[in-house]
Specification:
single chain; about 600 residues; alpha/beta; TIM Barrel; eight-stranded parallel β-barrel; 23 helices; 9 strands
């Protein structure tokens, strides 16, 4: 029953036999889901932010809101609705392949109609399945959260990531078997109810009866089913990756042979991008269809026959609607290709910011790293400032000195005189023995007329206002306010800085940007973790009148991609590499630049 090769052959046969009907249903459903689901999720989240009355941007704030009553309600609803969309699409495709042969558009529309007709039952089944998994996971999540708080709660996340202290491995050793038990229990529950959806749709069962029917059909077969499902899922995931790599290599080679005339190159790229988008959509469809066919094929084998579905009602003019959907797909692909190509500006403008100085060749946040950043062509120096125990502004990312010096002391507990005795260069190499933690004033004196400053405030609890006031006062006294940006991970700190000096340029560093969240901050620039940057997000931020900085970008390929996305500032530990890329691009022809930008877009 569960031999892999015949199963894959059956799935492929069903997709071939019902291909046009499946495509038509996929298009109908995608248009309907896009019209309802996307606006619904965005509007409800914006409503949540408005009701809470606070920004939800940084890691800590997202966690706080997610654990609030309203946040939990929205999160659970979002998870449930996401799975409901998947269930609805799977249910429709199962009905398509179980329908008697006929007009493909009428079959597709009839299946969509019956999915909508059985919408309450599908909602109930989704609620039962997703809710059961969440209830199963809840005690494990609570237990792991308490364990994390008890073992790691007092340690800065940055220290955990970079130093990996022994207590972190103790936590991993305890948490791993707990997570493994959760995964095994969740998998057992998932495959117990794996055939509930086809049982409900094709046998007319009510949700609870469908779950019981699935339990009977999967009895004694769940382990083999799990191996098949995971194996086919990995295959489906691998196909688009291989396609993208092949398409990139072949397409770039072919386009590289074209004459470097925009009258030839631009139309060729437009056709190439449109083909890529259409093919990507097709592969996405095949992945969804293969998953649905896997479920229905296993169901047919479990019951020992092929179930037949007859639609209760089929809307009129199905063909007209289907042709309209297919035309819209082509228009969408061409429009997307044109929009992408239009975004390939020939001239690249970006500000180079050295992250804690040139911190790959000199110790971070030191005068040595700063001077190297100036040599490497950086426009700005990014540095972290905090208060010493006696109220002086000093430059250090960590409050605790153990990561760089091995000394387990906090800067907030030390006087400036004690801090100035600390060697933060020896760990980096013999050439930097004796390098000290600089004061903010030393950085200001060294930066004047040489480099701009990106000053990230790192207050300890209760010192944010004092730190902000002193930094602003020192910038003003040194006449550096026009050549500096104040940054923070905290929207509250940015709001405080704006309250003290509304003309001061500010950057809010974010881990995530949620719909509606930009309306909650007065920051002039949004700093994104570079893995979160996308063309659509950049467009949203730019449309709000703000600049975009990405951090921390050290890979040359990533630097090139973000240049092409149109970011305003790249924060990097390797300013010399970014300077070199910009110089190389200035020496390229328009045709060469277009090809570089196309390859970068494909990699993104």
């Amino acid at each position: 029953m569960l031999a892999p090769r015949p199963l894959i052959q059956d799935i492929a046969r069903q997709i071939r036999a019902h291909l046009r009907s499946l495509i038509a249903f996929h298009l109908f459903f995608t248009l309907l889901a896009s019209a309802v689901w996307v606006p619904l999720s965005a509007n409800t989240l914006s409503g949540l932010l408005h009701r809470i009355g606070r920004p939800v941007l940084s890691n800590g704030q997202i966690l706080d809101v997610a654990l609030s009553p309203w946040g939990l309600i929205w999160l659970l609803a979002a998870v449930g609705l996401s799975f409901l969309v998947i269930f609805l699409q799977q249910a429709g495709m199962m009905l398509v392949v179980s329908s008697p042969a006929g007009n493909r558009y009428r079959v597709a529309m009839g299946s969509l109609w019956d999915v909508l007709r059985r919408f309450p039952a599908l909602v109930t089944l989704t609620f039962l399945q997703v809710g059961s998994h969440l209830l199963l996971a809840a005690p494990f999540a609570i237990g792991l959260a308490h364990l994390y708080h008890a073992m790691l709660g007092d340690i800065e996340p940055y220290i955990l990531i970079h130093l990996k202290p022994p207590v972190l491995w103790d936590f991993v050793a305890i948490a791993t078997p707990i997570l493994l038990v959760l995964v095994l229990l969740s998998a057992a529950l998932y495959f117990r109810w794996f055939l509930a959806l086809p049982s409900m749709m094709l046998e007319g069962l009510k949700p609870i009866a469908a779950l019981e029917r699935s339990r009977e059909l999967t009895q004694g077969r769940r382990f083999r089913m799990a191996l098949l499902v995971v194996g086919i899922a990995l295959l489906v995931i691998a196909i688009p990756i291989v396609f993208t790599l092949g398409f990139n290599a072949l397409g770039s080679a072919l386009l590289g042979q074209l004459p470097e005339r925009n009258s030839v190159l631009v139309p060729a790229m437009l056709a190439y991008l449109a083909l890529y988008i259409v093919t990507t959509i097709a592969l996405t469809f095949l992945g969804i269809a293969a998953n649905s066919m896997l479920v229905i094929t296993l169901y047919h084998r479990a019951i020992g026959r092929v179930a037949v579905f007859r639609s209760a009602a089929i809307p009129q003019r199905s063909g007209v609607i289907a042709w309209g959907a297919e035309i819209l797909l082509l228009v969408f692909a061409l429009g997307q290709a044109g929009w992408i190509l239009h975004g390939f500006e020939i001239n690249d403008h970006v500000t180079i910011t050295a992250h804690r100085g040139s911190s790959l060749v000199a110790p971070e946040n030191t005068l040595a790293a700063m001077n190297q950043a100036i040599v490497d062509g950086a426009d700005y120096l990014e540095l972290d400032v905090r208060l010493s125990g006696d109220g002086e502004v000093v430059v250090s990312h960590d409050n605790n000195l153990s990561r760089l010096t091995g000394v387990d002391r906090n800067i907030s507990d030390m006087t400036l005189e004690e801090i100035e005795q600390v060697d933060v260069g020896s760990y980096f190499g013999d050439a930097f023995v004796g390098e000290r933690i600089p004061t903010f004033q030393q950085i200001l004196d060294n930066a004047k007329h040489r480099i701009g400053l990106y000053v990230e405030l790192k207050p300890t609890p209760g010192t944010a206002e004092q730190l902000a006031r002193q930094v602003l006062a020192q910038l003003k006294a040194s006449r550096m306010t026009d050549h500096a940006v104040i940054a923070s991970l905290s929207p509250g700190v940015i709001e405080m800085v704006k309250g003290l000096d509304d003309d001061m340029r500010t950057t809010l560093f974010l881990q995530f940007v949620l719909p509606g969240a930009l309306n909650t901050t007065d920051a002039d620039i949004i700093g994104l973790r570079h893995t979160q940057a996308t063309p659509s997000l950049l467009r949203t931020i730019h449309d709000s009148g703000r600049g975009v900085a990405v951090w921390t970008v050290n890979d040359i390929g990533d630097m090139s991609r973000y240049l092409d996305m149109g970011v305003d500032n790249i924060i990097t530990d390797r300013p010399e590499a970014l300077t070199r890329i910009l110089e190389e691009r200035r020496g390229m022809s328009d045709g060469e630049l277009l090809l570089v930008k196309l390859r970068n877009w494909l990699r993104s």
